[in-house]
Amino acid sequence: MAKQASRFQRDIKDHWYVSYNKNGYPHVQQGFVLNPERLQEWDPFVLMADDWFKRGTFSDHPHRGFQTITYVIDGRLEHIDNAGGHSILDAGDVQYMNAGWAARHAEEAVDDDLIHTLQLWLNLPKSLKNSDTSYQDIRLEDVPTVPFEGGAVKVYAGTIADVIGPLESMVPITMSEISIGKGGTYTHRIPENHNAFLYVLSGELEFGKSKTAIKKTGAAHLTFNENGSLESELPIKANERSKVLIYSGVPINEKVAAHGPFVMNTMEEIQQAFRDFQAGKFGPPAV
Q1: Residue 284 in domain
Q2: Is 221 among the annotated ligand-binding positions?
Q3: Prediction pTM value
Q4: Where does the Pirin N-terminal domain start and stop, copy by copy (predicted)?
């Protein structure tokens, strides 16, 4: 009988804690879970922002060349786009946007809410940067939950624990939220060729063979095997009641130029995006 190949064992490559800028009203506080200054390391991800904000922070604005995945931690998020789309998302909901060639939208707190969100920027390969703009709301009640002894995993995107998440990305990714009670353990399995990171929402957990302990507002970049084709494993243990988000994606391995609301391959393309917006090619305002 042929010996089954062993799974790649992931560990913590690097970890850090998010530092926050207190900006005042209306963008009350912001920190970077993934700092865009290190975007080459995060491929296919560009940045992740951790924001607290009031209404008036992210009114009508454009995007081109990438995707966003916005996870609502607290408060109500109102989305408006210039194609007539409108929705309100609550805690645990996610909005996916493919900016593609020309997105124009607004993301606002509802009424007097102080909203807390995580927004991940997910790159598009050059071949998809001119794709059609689209939006998808993923409601918490539509996210499959897989229980395990001592906890559960919510599968937002990709295939985790033999369950497929509802988020339909333009590139292969996984997104999961794992909740574990004190002393509980779980082994997270994702494709070994995915670049991956995690962000601890609450509690304290130990990860990988190194048993690196990470607390709330801690983030980590994971080891991976870019040329592999099998699954990988990340052992997790909760030192207290905890919750963690884990994201992964296949690296695109292209040059990245990111400036303002645009992510392209060259600065010339960035400048063209600004010219197109100023020329009205992104359509009317999102109001």
Answers
A1: no
A2: no
A3: 0.96
A4: 51-122
Rounded Cα–Cα distance for residues 219 and 32 (Å): 10
What residue type is assigned to position 235 of the chain? P
> Does residue 11 carry a pLDDT above 60?
yes
Give tens-digit pLDDT for 97-117. 999 999 999 999 999 999 999
Joined together, the tokens standing for residue 127 give 């071949």
Copy the structure tokens of residue 248: 């992964």
Partners of residue 191 on adjacent β-strands: 231
Going by C-alpha positions, the residue among 84, 101, 112 that lies closest to residue 284 is: 84
- Per the rule left: phi > 0, alpha: psi between -120 and 50, beta: everything else, 177 is beta
CATH of the domain at 188: 2.60.120.10
In whole angstroms, give the CA distance from residue 242 to residue 249.
24
- In tens, the pLDDT along 75-85 reads 999 999 999 99
Domain presence at residue 53: yes
Whole-angstrom Cα distance, residue 242 to residue 138?
A: 23
The answer as to whether 3 is a domain residue is no
Taking the C-alpha atoms of residue 122 and residue 127, their distance in angstroms, rounded to an integer, is 15
Residue 141 DSSP one-character state: G
Q: Which domain holds residue 64?
A: 8-272
Domain count, the chain: 1
- The answer to whether 27 touches 108, Cβ cutoff 8 Å, is no
105 known member of a binding site:
yes
Q: Is residue 280 part of a domain?
A: no
Q: 10 Å Cβ neighbour count for 11?
A: 15
For residues 44-69, average pLDDT = 97
